[in-house]
Design a protein that fits this description.
- This protein has one domain.
- By secondary structure, the chain is mainly beta.
- Helix content is 0%, strand content 22%.
- The radius of gyration is 14 Å and the shape is globular.
Length: 65
Amino acid sequence: MRVRYIDDNGVEKTRYVHLVQRRGQRGEPLVTLKMLASEKRQVQIDFLYPPDSTPPQVLTVRTKR
């Protein structure tokens, strides 16, 4: 996966993550951002996988209070 975002210091970041999970396994956060209630930032996630692999099933985006 490729994850592109602006970090908490305003710096554009690109991370590549090789993600392997088993059925029912809980994943770790790909990125965690601290934002104000009215703040907006774009996060772009690209799924890059070979044609013979199982495509991703779920991507969850959530907020924490």
